[in-house]
Specification:
With 193 residues, the chain is an all-beta fold. 2% of the residues lie in helices and 79% in strands.
């Protein structure tokens, strides 16, 4: 699975946050699609595996520290996972080659808790990040999410952010074992309304 995850075909990530006073709502959406092709047994068989991973997170926030642009929030909520895959195996000596396709998928819900912060002095540069953990056996055994980044405020409403994010899960439910980590650099923008 780790070799497959190195060949992501498409990734989409979006984040939104609503806040009123010390209370807020944090929402995060992540989608990845990957495909891996290969052959086996002296090229007698060929195959293609396509996997889609969708992660949606919603968390309530409470601001513990609120000092101008510097803040620290505690969060609690849920994360929904949906994983689906299609495996097509083809015998290469037919004309046209006969093939079979096997499809499977699973969805589950994990409780999540975490912290999120931003550290900024008098310059337009700032540090931002979060740490979340969950699962606790309710859905997955372990579900985690770490992000750390550097931002630069271009205006009062718009910032550029660059950082590194890792998401991991350990899900084991009888006929499905899904133990994976997705991580890598990211570049984005932050818009305040």
């Amino acid at each position: 699975l780790h070799e497959i995850l190195e060949q992501l075909d498409f990734t989409l990530m979006a984040l939104a946050e609503l806040r009123r006073g010390r209370f807020g709502i944090f929402a995060d959406f992540f989608y990845a699609e990957l495909t891996r092709d290969g052959s086996a047994v002296f090229d007698l068989f060929s195959g293609s595996l396509t996997t889609q991973i969708t992660i949606a997170t919603a968390m309530a926030e409470y601001r513990l520290v609120d000092r101008g642009p510097t803040s620290l929030d505690v969060m609690a909520g849920v994360r929904v996972w949906n994983v689906s895959g299609d495996l097509t195996v083809t015998v290469n000596d037919g004309d046209p080659p006969p093939g079979i396709t096997i499809s499977d998928g699973r969805s589950w819900l994990d409780p999540m808790v975490g912290v999120k912060g931003r550290l900024q002095g008098g310059s337009p540069w700032y540090l931002t990040g979060w740490a979340m953990i969950g699962g606790f056996g309710a859905g997955s055994d372990l579900d985690w999410d770490l992000f750390g980044g550097v931002g630069y405020e271009l205006t009062d409403r718009f910032s550029l952010v660059a950082g590194y994010r890792g998401i991991g899960v350990d899900y084991d439910d009888d006929d499905l074992l899904f133990d994976m980590t997705i991580h890598g650099p990211l570049i984005g923008g932050s818009l305040k309304f």
